[in-house]
Amino acid sequence: MNALRQLGQVYLEALTEVIATVTGIHLQAGSCESGNSFEDITGIMYLNSKKSGMLIVTANEDDVRVLCSRLTGVPFEEVTEDDLYDTICEIVNMTAGNAKLRINDADYMYSLLQPFVLKGKDVSIITKAITHIEAGTLTDGNISVSFKAVY
Q1: How many domains does the chain have?
Q2: What DSSP assignment string belongs to 82-141?
Q3: Which bin fits 43, alpha (ψ -120 to 50), beta or left (φ > 0)?
Q4: How far apart are alpha carbons 30 and 58 in whole angstroms?
Q5: Domain containing 122 — which CATH number?
Q6: Cα–Cα distance measured from residue 150 to residue 46, given in angstroms and rounded to the nearest whole number
Q7: What is the pTM of this model?
Q8: Residues of the domain holding 12
Q9: pLDDT digits (tens, 9 = 90+) for 134-151
Q10: Confidence band (pLDDT; 50, 70, 90) for 82?
């Protein structure tokens, strides 16, 4: 397995662990696609390093609402729009931090920068120097969360 493929696996494992730890929801790896589709709510963190990139986590609004409710204890129907954005940012932030602890390769060590949110499905991210995209979906049959690691 090459270093880039391993990096995608690191992010997949980190995201799975973070969601299980903070929500108690145990998602399993589903499809592994590198498509450019986004869901209702997308959290992104730019990763500053010798080999910079982005970590992207995207899910539909109801699935983020479930994660938020489980994370905060706020009833599903009382979760606000701001709560949804905070939740996806926190998941991206914790996933990046968890993955950072797992990476030993100096080329991929990075600084954690402020995550941000994109709202809506009609979104495109265009970069000039994408060398590799690792992507996948986690699901438990009820909710799904997709991720992309772009380097």
Answers
A1: 1
A2: HHHHHHHHHHHHHHHHHHHHH---GGG-EEE---EEEESSS-----S----EEEEEEE-S
A3: beta
A4: 14
A5: 3.40.1550.10
A6: 9
A7: 0.87
A8: 3-150
A9: 888 899 989 999 988 887
A10: very high
